[in-house]
Design a protein that fits this description.
CATH topology of one domain: Jelly Rolls
Distance between the termini: 52 Å
Oligomer: single chain
CATH class of one domain: Mainly Beta
Radius of gyration: 20 Å
Strand content: 35-45%
Length: about 325
């Protein structure tokens, strides 16, 4: 019976992998519902996608347009257009580098945790909450009983245990994410903040705006104060923890930064292609050379070895 169920799920995953090459909006909605219907569906789909990557098959591109934030940020309008992304199979290396750096600065309990590119780390808090750090990330907090942390740079997935008596806050200079009991992902670059809420609710505060985000909602905030809301299937969020990077109309400059963080490979990007948009999924599993070749095909760029890493150029 178990084998029959596993076989059925695998067959469904293969069917979805084929259909998504030319899926309609309605089919993408059905696919999202299928992913969320059973926790076994997402890993089954990933496995099929991995196998397809070995055959050098890249699915046709479909685009998702960003959804503008409501003029009144206190009033949420569900922005859920059905997503249609280009899914491409890519194998990549996840080079784990040695050691996390713990520095004691300021107060006796203050800690600064820094992960190197390609490295991940889990920070466990006293109340059972966990913060998983991606590579190239810096986190500051006052002891493991703290209800406030600062994300200085990089990316983190937060699984926060809700306490009605206290709010958990992530600070990023003048911007804040206030947790109302949830699981969410934050990525911080010098010019862009990205938030994905996979469970529960958070409140974004910054640039004079306050936006409530429920499960399945996303938010981006630029350094100029532009705040944009959108939507994504919760099963697809925090993809870097599964070895996946998902992009929606993202400039290649942002793609390169996320690849560096996840793989530990330093990437030099030709300025002429830095703003070129990309939609798709990049799997960060496998060996380094396979990743290089696959990126050339998916991004339509030359990816050449440099002294310190790779260079992307037309």
């Amino acid at each position: 019976m178990v084998e029959h169920t596993q076989s059925r799920i695998r067959d469904e995953a293969i069917n979805w992998h084929i259909r998504l090459a030319s899926a309609s909006d309605e089919e993408w909605q059905e696919f999202t519902a299928w992913l969320e219907a059973d926790p076994r569906h997402n890993p089954a789909y990933e496995a099929v996608s991995d196998e397809d990557a070995e055959l050098d098959f890249v699915l046709a591109q479909r685009e998702v347009m960003p959804v503008a934030a409501n003029d009144d940020p206190e009033v949420w309008q569900d922005p859920r257009p059905s997503p249609a992304w280009r899914w491409g199979g890519i194998a990549a290396s996840l080079a784990l580098l040695a050691g996390v750096t713990y520095l004691v600065v300021g107060g006796a309990n203050e800690q600064v945790i820094v992960t190197a590119p390609g490295e991940t780390r889990i920070v466990s808090l006293d109340d059972g909450s966990q913060i998983t750090l991606n590579g190239g990330t810096q986190l500051v907090f006052e002891g493991t009983d703290s209800q406030e942390v600062e994300l200085v740079a990089g990316e983190a997935r937060l699984d926060i245990r809700h306490d009605p008596a206290r709010e958990f806050t992530v600070v990023m200079d003048s911007q804040r994410i206030v947790d109302i009991g949830t699981k969410f992902n934050i990525s911080r670059d010098p010019d862009l903040l990205r938030v994905e809420v996979s469970e529960g609710t958070v409140r974004y505060e910054g640039f004079g705006k306050s936006v409530r985000l429920e499960a399945g909602h996303t938010l981006t905030a630029t350094s100029t104060g532009a705040v944009t809301s959108g939507a994504m299937a919760p099963a697809l969020m925090s993809g870097w923890m599964r070895g996946e990077l998902i992009f929606h109309d993202a400039p290649l400059d942002l793609v390169a930064r996320d690849l560096e963080r996840a793989s530990g490979i330093e990437i030099e990007l030709d300025p002429s292609v830095a703003d070129r948009p990309f939609n798709g999924l990049i799997q960060t599993r496998g060996d380094k050379e396979t990743l290089r070749k696959r990126l050339e095909g998916l991004l339509a760029l030359r990816v050449t070895e440099t002294e310190n890493g790779w260079k992307f150029e037309p």
